[in-house]
Design brief:
The chain is mainly α. The protein contains 13 helices and 4 strands. Helix 9 runs antiparallel to helix 12.
Length: 319
């Protein structure tokens, strides 16, 4: 059968329209409406907000914890600097006018099910938002610039040949006031390597088990069929789609943002919504995590106890 260029163009146009159907709209229909009834106990997940907390989340610091630790460390640092005679040392400070000398590392990562942000996919495909680095710089350039005479007490970098460092006649702690503040918050921790590493290792092992679970494999097959059916390349998972080298990801996390990339990212998310891929992932992950916690209760309880010790120290510092 001979296909004219006009028909080929029309077919390509249809694919593009279908792929971008969610852009500029309300995000498309929910998984429930698109895929029918779901098994009992499986949450309907269209956006990140629909994902319930996972069992392992209770054994790791969250974003709020890290923000509070940073605020507490800054208060402790300020108090320490004042004790060395720097009465006007600010609560917020930075060490470079432009941050041009600061190496800003961007961790590019994703999960088995990838992103659920359709608006972002429409704008940047699988890349990082252009404002992310700007936000980082603004966050870390608040307050006044540290003066030269403050740096030794702040960082403890001026050690003499005998290994000592003194400011105004007083010994400066290792790492200066900044590191001292950080250490104060974690001083009560019984087993720091266990607190920071145990859950990370268990999560990695459990994530692998989730990916190999037959329910998850079926869900990913349905997702892959859907993406391919919309006219795009077949991927093993949304994570594989995210990591496609065709997107030409740079060191700052930005990609080429081609029409093909953005269309693929949109189809990716639409298919996850149609087949509730993230809902299945959450169900399988939660099941395996609950079982793992029950098998290693003492180890998890020790992690949680140390997390609470740090939180208590943060509350005292912020009181």
């Amino acid at each position: 059968m001979k296909v004219t260029w006009g028909k080929r163009w029309a077919a390509a146009l249809v694919v593009a329209v279908v792929a971008l159907a969610g852009c500029g709209s309300d995000g498309g229909g929910s998984g429930a409406s698109a895929g029918g009834a779901r098994p009992s106990g499986v949450p309907e997940v269209d956006t990140e907000r629909d994902l319930p907390e996972l069992p392992l989340d209770r054994y790791e610091f969250g974003r709020r914890d890290y923000d509070r630790q940073e605020a507490a460390a800054l208060r402790l640092t300020q108090a320490c600097m004042k004790s060395y005679g720097f009465a006007d040392f600010p609560l917020r400070w930075h060490e470079s006018d432009t941050l041009s000398s600061v190496a800003v590392g961007t961790l590019i990562s994703t999960t088995l099910t990838g992103s659920l942000d359709l608006d972002r996919a429409c704008r940047v495909g699988y890349g990082m938002e252009g404002d992310a680095l700007k936000e980082y710089r603004e966050r870390h350039s608040k307050g006044r610039l540290v003066r030269q005479d403050e740096r030794e007490a702040l960082r403890g970098t001026g050690k003499a040949l005998d290994g000592s460092s003194k400011v105004n006649g007083r010994e400066v702690p290792d790492g200066g006031c900044y590191q001292r503040g950080q250490r104060q918050l974690w001083a009560g921790v019984k087993d720091e390597p266990h607190m920071t590493g145990y859950v990370t290792k268990r999560r990695a092992a459990l994530d692998k088990a989730v990916a190999e679970d037959r329910r998850m494999r079926r869900a990913l097959d349905a997702w892959a069929d859907c993406v391919e059916g919309k006219g795009f390349k077949r991927y093993a998972s949304p994570e594989a789609a995210f990591r496609d080298k065709a997107w030409r990801r740079g060191g700052d996390g930005r990609t080429g943002r081609t029409r093909q990339e953005r269309d693929t990212a949109v189809a990716d998310i639409e298919c996850k919504r149609e087949h509730n891929t993230a809902g299945v992932w959450w169900t399988v992950a939660a099941e395996k995590q609950r079982y793992d916690i029950s098998r290693h209760k003492a180890a998890y309880d020790a992690v949680r106890a140390d997390l609470e010790r740090v939180r208590a120290a943060v509350r005292r510092a912020l009181a």
